């Protein structure tokens, strides 16, 4: 049983609050070719994000294929699709809160690594 029953910890709802550079590092550390995935998207012809319902301007961060917001959505979807453990994306206080909700004992003055290990152990 995981930390919460409604979805896995790598779901979009849980990863979207992380900083984009941290998500990118997590994907790169797991050998995900972000550029290959990004380049599957067409380049914008009118400087507007091509995703349905999005009217934001495209971003250089996403090679002018998506806006910055939709690029982050793509990154989060890659974490989910490749079933990557997202623990490094969580702030310490969020990890601690998730563990408390799951009734997992937390040692006093626990480091982030200790919190991550407790989270992984609880999801096994």
Model description:
Residues 1-6 have low confidence and may be disordered. The protein starts with 11 loop residues before the first helix and ends with a helix. The chain has 6 helices and no strands. By secondary structure, the chain is mainly alpha-helical. The chain is elongated and about 55 Å long. The protein has 2 domains: 1-89, no CATH class; 90-124. It has helices at 12-15, 20-29, 34-38, 68-81, 92-101, 112-123.
List keywords for this structure.
single chain; 124 residues; mainly alpha; 2 domains; 6 helices; disordered N terminus
Helix share of residues? Answer: 40-55%
Shape field? elongated
Sheet of most strands: none
Q: How many DSSP E strands? A: 0
Overall pLDDT score:
83
Q: How much strand?
A: under 5%
Number of helices: 6
Alpha-beta content class: mainly alpha
- Unreliable spans are 1-6
End-to-end Cα distance: 7 Å
Order of helices and strands: HHHHHH
Domains counted in the coordinates: how many? 2
Rg on CA atoms, Å: 17 Å
Q: Can you give me a brief rundown of this structure?
A:
With about 120 residues, the protein is mainly α. The chain has helices spanning about 10-15, 20-30, 35-40, 70-80, 90-100, 110-124. It folds into 2 domains: about 1-90, no CATH class; about 90-124.
